[in-house]
Amino acid sequence: MSSLEVLEPIFKVIPEVKSPVHREDFNEKLKWTALVLVLYFFLTQIPLYGLAPGAIDSFAQLRAVMAGSFGSILTLGIGPIVTASIVLQLLVGSNLLDLDLSSHKDKSHFQATQKVLSIVFTVFEASVLVLTGNLVPIDGSYTWLLILQLVLGALVIIYLDEVVSKWGFGSGIGLFIAAGVCQAIMVGTFSILPGTDGFLAGIIPKFIQQIMAGTPNLAILIPLIATIIVFLVVLYGEAMRVEIPISHGSVRGHGRIRGSVGKYPLKFVYSSNMPVILTSALLVNVTLFANVFQKIGVPILGHMQQGKPVDGIAWLLSTPSLQHFITEPIHVLIYAIFFIGCCMLFSYLWVEISGLNAKKISEQLYNSGIQIPGFRSSKRQLYKILKKYIPALTIISGIYVGLIAFLADLTGALGGGTGVLLTVGILHKLYEEMAEEQLMSANPVLRKVLGGD
């Protein structure tokens, strides 16, 4: 019996997006993805009614990762979804929840529980932001109206994520992060709105203005250059593979393919960008709880001023800048160790929970009739070979994405260094998924071989 079966009565009353009865074609998936993206941008432009002017974004440095728009009904962004995912991954990883995620029923319970927890965290985070003074109403009578708007906005995000996951390309979480970061990069680079220093706000228009005025300042190009460097480094890492020689034996259900030899590629960034998303969400929650504890008069995580940590654990785990590398080296070092360490932990948990570990992959390959040349065809042998690579890649990829995200944030890259890292990975994965879907749409026989409907 699943540990979560006691929650089944709750699962039944929570609305869900139905999965398509038949496999959708490329154009249908593209339509749903584009529709959700347009709706997301529209919702980011709806301001919170009753919010006092001058509100300060406590999570500005991690705003791109949260995929929210501060001051709009989507202020919470994907925060509640990712927080729920963190809690469940830690519970399953520590065996406090006894679940077999290879079982369809247990996996279904896991996903339903994540949705329930997302709704719980939506109400909690909305209440915290308003009641601790991060979002101040123009009048006390607007307090609960603000909370209600935040909750409704986050609920829409939860269901839009589900729509994309079932009907579109990729996941809603990834799509919203990429959309927000791309928007920030475009605005930061090309905006022609007036800035606070008398020049235009966008880097390129500002630099052109400075050249025409005879006072060019090359330093303003640093964020743009940093963005390009981060983009290229991450793209290079995404393209790296560890290739294992394989041969095809008897492919169950599809006859025999003789003399077919190839390579099975394992991505260097094996756990993808999920460890960075989860770690960033964890840091957001540290700041969130620091506000809560200060509000109740027990600032055990540190003191807050205008929503920002000024000392304690919350300050040590706040995102540093390149300036802090010189003025506060201990702060930078502790943050780096914590950030990269959490990325390693979440990399391991993600691979185990998402079915990407050596055991699950060896079962999939064996059931497809694949074997390693020179070795006896057996599931155990495949597992032994994959175990030499996958655990190491899991840890190394966690360190890699954590280190790149940390260094990128120090540079002040447009859209946030972490945001650029995530966006490159998300868009690369989205491109691969779209290319695969287009190939299968053009080859019905290939779709049948790969298990499509």
Automatic annotation (TrEMBL):
One family name in Pfam for this protein: Plug_translocon
Major site of localization recorded for this protein: membrane
One GO CC annotation: endomembrane system
Superkingdom field: Archaea
Keyword list, A-Z: Cell membrane, Membrane, Protein transport, Translocation, Transmembrane, Transmembrane helix, Transport
Subcellular location: Cell membrane; Endomembrane system; Membrane
Entry keyword annotation includes Transmembrane: yes
InterPro entries in the cross-refs: SecY, SecY/SEC61-alpha, SecY_CS, SecY_dom_sf, Translocon_Sec61/SecY_plug_dom
GO biological process terms on file: intracellular protein transmembrane transport; protein targeting
Function: The central subunit of the protein translocation channel SecYEG. Consists of two halves formed by TMs 1-5 and 6-10. These two domains form a lateral gate at the front which open onto the bilayer between TMs 2 and 7, and are clamped together by SecE at the back. The channel is closed by both a pore ring composed of hydrophobic SecY resides and a short helix (helix 2A) on the extracellular side of the membrane which forms a plug. The plug probably moves laterally to allow the channel to open. The ring and the pore may move independently.
NCBIfam families: 3a0501s007, PRK08568.1-5
Assembly notes: Component of the Sec protein translocase complex. Heterotrimer consisting of alpha (SecY), beta (SecG) and gamma (SecE) subunits. The heterotrimers can form oligomers, although 1 heterotrimer is thought to be able to translocate proteins. Interacts with the ribosome. May interact with SecDF, and other proteins may be involved.
Name the record gives this protein: Protein translocase subunit SecY
Organism: Methanobrevibacter thaueri
Lineage, uppermost ranks: Archaea, Methanobacteriati, Methanobacteriota, Methanomada group, Methanobacteria
Gene, per the UniProt record: secY
